From TrEMBL:
GO cellular component: Mre11 complex; site of double-strand break
Subcellular location: Chromosome; Nucleus
Complexes and interactors: Component of the MRN complex composed of two heterodimers RAD50/MRE11 associated with a single NBS1.
Residues in the signal sequence: none
Protein name: Double-strand break repair protein
Biased composition (Polar residues): 564-573
Entry cofactors: Mn(2+)
Annotated source species: Salix dunnii
Alphabetical keyword list: Chromosome, DNA damage, DNA repair, Endonuclease, Exonuclease, Hydrolase, Manganese, Meiosis, Metal-binding, Nuclease, Nucleus
Organism ancestry: Eukaryota, Viridiplantae, Streptophyta, Embryophyta, Tracheophyta
Gene3D superfamilies associated with the record: 3.60.21.10, Mre11, capping domain
Length: 690
C-alpha cells in the first residue's frame, strides 16, 4: 500500500483469492484436527493486514456437505473476528442484488444496517459443500443467513435433461475501476460439459454501458469449481469452453497450487489455480508450498501477488524404486526396512530445517511411494509405529505400487491428477451399468447416480424418492403423449376405411350384373378372413360360383380373375375397409373353408359339362400367355389366408372376353342354380378353391 498514491488507492480494487479451505478436515484426528481452521484464520488475517476490499473464495469452504456443529461454530467465530468491524467498505455493488444473491434478504451483507461488516467475503460452493435436500441448501447458506458471507453462483438445475443456466455478474465499482464478477458453483462435470457443448444451454449476461463506463471498460472475472485436469475429457471442463470476453479466471477444486496466472493460448484470458490451503491428499501435487493470491485491479489491468501460507503443516513427499537401490537384497526384508527407515529420517530432518523460522514446530506429514516390483511388501501400519510422535501420519507413511505398463513417466502423470482421495475408490452407477451391458428403461442412470451420491455423502433421505417421483411423472407424461398420438392415428385410419368402403359400395352395386361380379370377387379376395355375407350376397355368390367351378379345367382361377379384372380397383378399395376387422374370424373361417373344399370336389365332378364349355373358350382366349398366367395364378393361390379368386384380380390383367364370359355365366345360372343354392344353404359362403 505504501508504494501506491492516494489516487491509485481510490481506483484500485484489491481482492484476496483463496480456494478449497476444507474446514473440518480430519476433525477427529488428535494431531491434524485444527489444521484447516488455522490456515483459514491465517487467510483472514492476511486480508486484514493487506487491507483488501473483499475476500473471494473458490468453493469447498467446508469439507463435509453437512459439517459438524464444532466445525460450524469455529468457522463462524473466525469470520466474526475478522469480518465484523468498523472499517469502511470502499466499493459499490451496482447490479441487481436480488438476482446475484439467492437469499431472502437480497442484498450484499455490508449494506445491512444491523451489521458492521468491514471485510466482505464472497464465496461460491464446491463439490463438498454443494446444495442438497428438499430446500436445496448448502452449508454456505448458513453463513449467508448469518450475514457473514455473500453466497453467489448458485444455479437451480432440475430433471434429467441437459438443462439451462444463466450467469449474471456481480457488478462492482470502485472509482474508475469496474469489475464484472461471474460465479459458477460446482455442477457435476459430465453435465456441465454437455451444457457447454449444447447451444444456448449456458448464457452469459454482459454488463450494460453505464454513465462513464462502456461495456469494454469492464474487467470480467469468473470463479468456478470444476475438474480441470483432463483424465477424462467428458469429466472435466476445457478452458476453451469459456467465452473469450473474460479477462481473469479463478479455478477452484484442483488442490495443486499453481497460483501464478497462466495465459490460455488463443483465448485471451489468464487462469490462476490457488489450490487448497490444507493437504487432503498425500501426493506430490499437495506437497508444494501453499499460497493465496492478492489481486489488484485498476481499469483493465491487474497485478497478481502470491502470498505464502506459513501455518500449513509441512509435508514431505518422495518416490523410490526398490530395484534401483543397490543396497537392498530382494530376499532380505530387513535390508528393505533399513533402507526405508533411512529415507524417512532424511525427510523428517529436511522438514525440521524448513521450520526453523516457525514459532510453533508442527509434526510433518511424510509420504513415501514405493515401487516394489520384484520385491515383497511390508506392513505399513507396523512400519509406522516407530514414528509415532515424530510424524503426523504414522499409519500411512508408506504406499506401495507397481510400475505401470505405460511407463513410469505416465504413471507419475496419472498420480498427480488424483488429488482428491475421496474419488480413488468410488465406482458410480454409470460404470456398473456399462460394465454389465445393462439398460435402464424408466430411471435414468445419471439420475440414480446423483441420488446415490446425495443419499450417501449428503445424508439426503429423500434423494431416491425425489428421483423416482420425478422420473415416474415424466414417464406418465410421455405415455399420455404416445396414447394421444396413437388415438389420432387410429381415428385417421378408421376414417380412411369408412371413406374407402363407402366409395367401393357406391360404385360396385350400380347394377345387378356388376353386383354379382363384385360379390364373388370380394368373397374370394378375403380368403380365410371369414366374410360376412347376407342372403343377397349368398345368391350372388351362387351365381358366380358356377362360372368359377367350371373354370377349373385348365387355369385354376384364370377365368375368375378375368371376370373381375375390370373391377379390380373397386374390389381392392372395398376389401381394404373390412380386412382389418375380419382377422378375429380367421380361425373359424379356416375350418369352414376346409369343409367347403371337400364339397367343391363333388360339385366340380357334377358340373363337368359346364367346365368343358367354359374351358374351351378360356383356352382360345388366352393361348398365347397361358403358361405365364397359369404360373402366376398358382403362385398366388398357394398363400394361406387369401382366396384364389382375387389373386389374378390383384395382378391387374384385363380380360378381353368379359362380355362372353358374363353371358356364359348367366346361361349356366339357369341350369345349376338349384343345386348350388342347396349346397350353399348347407354350408357357409364359399371363400376360395383349394
Amino acid at each position: 500500500m505504501g508504494d501506491l498514491s492516494r489516487d491509485d488507492i481510490a481506483n484500485t480494487l484489491r481482492i484476496l483469492v483463496a480456494t478449497d479451505c476444507h474446514l473440518g478436515y480430519m476433525e477427529k484426528d488428535e494431531i491434524r484436527r485444527h489444521d484447516s481452521f488455522q490456515a483459514f484464520e491465517e487467510i483472514c488475517s492476511i486480508a486484514e493486514q493487506k487491507k483488501v476490499d473483499f475476500v473471494l473464495l473458490g468453493g469447498d469452504l467446508f469439507h463435509e456437505n453437512k459439517p459438524s456443529r464444532s466445525t460450524l461454530v469455529k468457522a463462524i467465530e473466525i469470520l466474526r473476528r475478522h469480518c465484523l468491524n468498523d472499517q469502511p467498505v470502499q466499493f459499490q455493488v451496482v447490479s441487481d442484488q436480488t438476482v446475484n444473491f439467492a437469499n431472502v434478504f437480497g442484498h450484499v451483507n455490508y449494506e445491512d444496517p444491523h451489521f458492521n461488516v468491514g471485510l466482505p467475503v464472497f464465496s461460491i460452493h464446491g463439490n463438498h459443500d454443494d446444495p442438497a435436500g428438499v430446500d436445496n441448501l448448502s452449508a454456505v447458506d448458513i453463513l449467508s443467513a448469518c450475514n457473514l458471507v455473500n453466497y453467489f453462483g448458485k444455479m437451480a438445475l432440475e430433471g434429467s435433461g441437459v438443462g439451462q443456466i444463466t450467469l449474471y455478474p456481480i457488478l462492482v465499482r470502485k472509482g474508475s475501476t469496474a469489475v464484472a464478477l461471474y460465479g459458477l458453483g460446482n455442477i457435476r462435470d459430465e453435465r456441465l460439459n454437455r451444457m457447454f457443448q449444447t447451444p444456448h444451454a449456458v448464457q452469459w449476461m454482459r454488463p450494460e454501458a453505464q454513465e462513464g463506463c462502456l461495456v469494454s471498460d469492464w474487467f470480467n472475472m469468473l470463479v468456478l469449481h470444476q475438474n480441470r485436469v483432463k483424465t477424462n475429457p467428458k469429466n472435466a471442463i476445457n478452458e476453451h469452453f469459456l467465452p473469450r470476453f473474460l479477462d481473469f479466471i479463478v479455478w477452484g477444486h484442483e488442490h495443486e497450487c499453481l497460483v501464478d496466472p497462466q495465459e490460455v493460448p488463443g483465448m485471451g484470458f489468464h487462469i490462476t489455480q490457488p489450490g487448497s490451503s490444507v493437504a487432503t491428499s498425500l501426493i506430490d501435487g499437495e506437497s508444494k508450498p501453499k499460497h493465496v493470491l492478492l489481486l489488484e485491479i485498476k481499469g483493465n489491468q491487474y497485478r497478481p501477488t502470491k502470498i505464502p501460507l506459513t501455518s500449513v503443516r509441512p509435508f514431505e513427499y518422495t518416490e523410490i524404486v526398490l530395484k534401483d537401490e543397490s543396497d537392498i537384497d530382494p530376499n532380505d526384508q530387513n535390508s528393505i526396512l533399513e533402507h526405508l527407515d533411512k529415507v524417512v529420517r532424511n525427510l523428517i530432518e529436511k522438514s525440521s530445517k524448513k521450520a526453523v523460522s516457525m514459532s510453533e514446530v508442527k509434526l510433518p506429514l511424510v509420504r513415501i511411494k514405493v515401487d516394489y516390483s520384484g520385491f515383497m511388501t511390508i506392513n505399513p501400519q507396523r512400519f509406522g509405529q516407530k514414528y509415532v510422535g515424530k510424524v503426523a501420519n504414522p499409519q500411512d507413511i508408506l504406499i506401495f505400487s507397481k510400475a505401470s505398463k505405460r511407463g513410469r513417466n505416465e504413471a507419475k502423470f496419472d498420480d498427480t491428477e488424483r488429488l482428491r482421495p475421496e474419488e480413488l475408490n468410488q465406482q458410480n452407477i454409470e460404470a456398473l451399468v456399462a460394465e454389465n451391458n445393462l439398460k435402464m428403461e424408466i430411471l435414468p442412470v445419471n439420475d440414480l447416480d446423483v441420488a446415490l451420491h446425495n443419499f450417501v455423502n449428503k445424508d439426503d433421505k429423500m434423494a431416491f424418492y425425489a428421483c423416482v417421483k420425478y422420473n415416474l411423472q415424466e414417464t406418465r407424461e410421455r405415455v399420455k403423449e404416445r396414447s394421444v398420438r396413437s388415438t389420432d392415428a387410429a381415428q385417421s385410419i378408421e376414417d380412411f376405411r369408412t371413406t374407402s368402403a363407402g366409395a367401393g359400395s357406391a360404385v360396385s352395386f350400380s347394377d345387378e350384373e356388376d353386383a354379382a361380379q363384385i360379390s364373388g370377387s370380394t368373397s374370394t379376395t378375403r380368403g380365410r378372413k371369414g366374410s360376412r355375407v347376407g342372403s343377397k350376397s349368398s345368391q350372388d355368390v351362387s351365381e358366380t360360383g358356377k362360372g368359377k367351378t367350371s373354370a377349373r379345367g385348365r387355369g385354376r382361377g384364370r377365368g375368375r380373375g378375368r371376370g373381375s379384372s375390370n373391377l379390380k380397383q373397386t374390389t381392392l378399395d372395398a376389401t381394404l375397409g373390412f380386412r382389418q376387422s375380419q382377422r378375429s374370424a380367421s380361425v373359424a373361417a379356416t375350418a369352414a373353408v376346409r369343409s367347403i373344399a371337400v364339397e367343391d370336389e363333388n360339385v366340380d365332378s357334377a358340373s363337368s359339362e359346364d367346365s368343358k364349355k367354359l374351358g374351351i373358350h378360356e383356352v382360345a382366349d388366352s393361348s398365347n400367355d397361358d403358361e405365364s398366367i397359369q404360373g402366376k395364378g398358382r403362385k398366388r393361390a398357394a398363400g394361406r389366408g387369401r382366396g384364389r379368386g382375387a389373386t389374378p384380380s390383384k395382378r391387374g390383367r384385363k380380360s378381353e372376353n368379359f362380355p362372353l364370359q358374363r353371358m356364359l355365366m348367366s346361361k349356366d345360372d339357369d341350369d345349376d342354380d338349384d343345386d348350388v343354392t342347396k349346397r350353399l344353404n348347407k354350408s357357409q359362403p364359399r371363400v376360395g378353391d383349394f
